[in-house]
User: Fold this.
Amino acid sequence: MKSFNKAKVIQPLIDVARRYSKKPEFAAMAAAYVVLLSIRHGESFPLPALENVLGKEELLPEYVRVFLETYLADHWKEYQQTVGSYDEDSLVDFFSNEATLMLMESRHDFSPHPAVDQLCTGLLEIKSGNAIADLNCGIGKFVRKAWFALWNVTGSDEGLSVVGYSRDVEFAALTYILCNVTGVGAKVVAQSIFISHPERYDRIALIPPFGMETRAINIPMTQQVLAERFENFPELRLSSADWVFAARAASLLSTGGRAVVAVPIHALNGSQSQTYREFLVRNQLIEAVIAIPRGFLNGMTVGFAIVVMREGCREIKFINGEEYQTIVEDVRLLDVPRLLKDYRALNDYEAVTTKPLEAVYSRECNLAPDFYLGEDLVYNNSKPFGKIVREIRRGAKLPVEAWKEVAGDDTSPVKKVAFKHFSEGLIDECLPGLTAVPPGAEDAVLEVGDLLISRMGFPFKVAVVEYRNEKLVADENVWIVRMGGNRMLAYYLRAYLESERGAKWLSRLSTGATLRTISAKNIEKIPVPNTDEETRDAIARELEKTTILVRKNRQRLNGALAAMKNVFDTFNKDGGL
Assistant:
């Protein structure tokens, strides 16, 4: 082999990529691939024109041809002028070195963390003879992992069947190129997974674009394709398609097949997706739900879950992945081997529980693992929150203009309360003033003894309304719990909701990926310990006494802070300094 300077090959690729491409790793990789094509055809350097290389690659898929022509047309001539003459062995060495592979791997911010890839591979239990499909958003990594997993089992590529689907031409082409360069004999299809086709697969991995609305896909075609596989599939609405993608993965499974699908946390118990969850649970298609901690999807901070799907599931296993996470020097680690071991075990653990479908269905098909893992938080003698209070109503839901029309100042007789205006059980002393209660907000005027719960944010805030000179009006992000004037009950419920157990229930029954919210319906479900009146009043009085102490200390602190800021002016009040 001739003497070889890798820098002379790599640097022209990077330079050209930086100059001409918004996504430099795409251009570098495409350029490298065309170089390899020219070498395989025995062309001598200087390299032939791009169209000549493409013209001689008869088996090149059209989507790859389009991709290469689009990304290389502008700078191919300059690349030809900068590249030197190197032999095939040198170029293959360049394509297969770790730095180049890392460059290729980094092409998509939504790619899974290696731990997620490892978990998905373990959950799928890939075996010899399996037909495998990668339906991930930005396909590529799993295609090769699955192919090599089968290769390790068989020691040969004979009979291996791995395919990747992507309607994005870029990702389809990149996956084809990367498989070609690294010797992976997988099939890559540049089309939507919602196009009808007869193929079925033994193993499927799917990480869809989170939160995509169904209107972003072809609704009539999608509905038709799902109806081919599932009778009476729910009508698609213009809402999140997370479970629609999951259903499609299930529809592509062969008999005895298994799929792993990523679903954002908010879709596990949100009301919008309840119809789809009910359908999948009723049809026995969900085997397990594994909550994955935040930070395990590159470029994404939301939490999500891996849903394991197969036919004939009569119970669902729920796993809290937080229990398998460690953080070492700001690096998140997931103990995948231990998680897989607990997943396969028959016994329940602290972070693992199994529930029959009837139990899941009776709970509105809530699929959040911590909801079921929290059932040990229920006291033996308890009542639902909604059975204890008089009513739960939302604060005034008015347009911004309606509030502005009655805007006042510090001396106004009416004050507005938002969830940001209370903390540590206290409503702020200083609140936005209103000249009057705005029309339509009459039912949101607060009464002494009302319990307030913030509608959004976590941890959720709780406060009891005390007597004030001003009239208070709550806005739409505050839940008003009417106690019928029973202040002691209000303090008791506040004490419970602020306790470790009560806070966990608020968390378990809330929804949302980034900004958590809780509905009145779910607040009503919180189990509250049914203590005797004497104990309840003792707890309430102790909390009230502590709250008074906090209020006094807060006033003293605020006074001290104000005085501290005015020390100089106080000493210089006669202007002598």
The longest strand covers residues 253-264.
